[in-house]
Amino acid sequence: MTRKAVALLSGGLDSMLAARLMLDQGIEVEALNFYTGFCVEGHTQSIRRQDPDRPRRNNALWSAEQLGIPLHFIDIAEEYKNEVVLSPRHGYGKYLNPCLDCKVFMVRRALDWGLQRGFDFVITGEVIGQRPKSQLKKSMPVIARESGAEDRLVRPLCAKLLEPTLPERAGWIDRTLLRDFHGRNRTPQIELARQYGFRDFAQPAGGCCFLTDPNYARKLSDLWQARDRRDYSMDDILLLKVGRHIRPGPHFKLIIGREEGENHFLEGYRKSFIALRSVSHNGPLALVDGEPGAADLETAARIVARFGKGRDAERVSVEVQRHGQTGQLLQVAPLRSTEIPQDWYV
Amino acid sequence: MTGPEQLDARHLLCPLPVIRTQQRIGQLPAGAQLEVVATDPGVLHDIPAWCRVHGHSVARIWREERDIHLLLQVAGKERTMTGHK
Asked: At A168, which helix (H) or strand (E)?
């Protein structure tokens, strides 16, 4: 009887190697990739126009193709927000990364998905000691227990350093063929990839989660502080990746496009925000998030003028449009760079 | 004669167009056709790749201004790939 495993496939090398080790043992493997809204490696490139011809790929799909296995995307964005990002039981890592809760959540979802479809166990590419929070040796049993997977969770890359799981004890897989990788040294993985002929795999191994990015985490913290509540919409998390974010006051901030692609992307949000754009000189589109007063709008217009071709002009005409309605024109003097305090930049 | 099923995935960034495609194809019978319209150029890579790992085929890809159209043919059996190459 062929045993079946569900693999969490992030698109990084480790999960790809873990799946391949199972395939080598005759296990039928299908992969899942979870869409959280935060792991969006291609978004910045999709939005910006700097490298329109640079080939792009989804690394999880690429890995599945290399392995020759089906990959299923699972959209968990809403549940992930409430159960993981906003209230992680195990807290955050260095930034806003709830890595341990994230792993528990994903393994649980993979287990549920697999059990409904006749799969026998779940595999991940975890390596003991590779990540500071979720891949510590003491975290491994926590993930197995809290996900409900218990001994149906196999980590092929470091299994020899862990207690034997059900698939090993039952003889579905041969423990001696599993690995004992540990620590941050990537040499064993690179060597195994070489043996398998995997080239051009995604680097680094840390995946693409924006919650581990200090700049992104700072912007998300700023958003929560300004709104006085810890919440976000999918549009919020997309907009945090776009443009310069400048907050002249606690009650409003500007999101200013940095190039044509970002301006085009921001255009799609015109109806949801106050939008500013210079009409006398070429310049970026800016959205205002918050509740600015009249004086604030003038400050915003002066900032927008600063980032356009009219930055050295005496006066610049800036159109202010509220939620896609007919705009008003403001004649403003562009702020000089020294007039924008560094702490306005989010 | 009815045309292909339609899926509007414009203004969604990858992988959302792929996720919507996956959901819609899951509801279609073998042999059905699905026309996906998207704006993220990432679909040019991702949707054909997703189709390949599930055995579906891409019959045609074309552009109309900013819109990218992909005409997909649903496979007889979803899983056709079995293990590494």
From this structure: helix A166-169
Q: Searching chain B, which residue's CA lies closest to the CA of residue A72?
A: B22
- Look at residue A13 and tell me whether its pLDDT is greater than 80: yes
Q: Are A273 and A290 in contact (CB under 8 A)?
A: no
Paired residues of A332 in beta bridges: A316
Q: Does A260 touch chain B (CB under 8 A)?
A: no
Provide the token pair at A343. Answer: 């702490």
From A46, A70, A268, residue closest to B53, measured CB to CB = A70
* Four-CA torsion A206, A211, A216, A221, nearest 10 degrees: -160
Q: Is there a contact between B19 and A73 if contact means CB atoms under 8 Å apart?
A: yes
Best mutation target among B14, B45, B82 (most A Cβ atoms within 10 Å) is B14
Q: What is the CA radius of gyration of chain B?
A: 12
Distance CA A151, CA B70 (A): 43
Q: What percent of chain A has pLDDT over 70?
A: 93
The token pair that represents A2 in the structure block: 């062929």
For residue B12, what is the DSSP state?
Answer: P
Helix (H, G, I), strand (E, B) or coil at B76: coil
Beta bridge partners of B35: B6, B71
Report the chain B residue with the minimal C-alpha distance to residue A22: B83
A221 touches chain B (CB under 8 A): no
Average pLDDT of chain A is 91
Cβ-defined contact of A30 to B79 (cutoff 8 Å): yes
Distance in angstroms (rounded) separating the CA atoms of residues A327 and A311: 22
Contact A71 B53 (CB under 8 A): yes
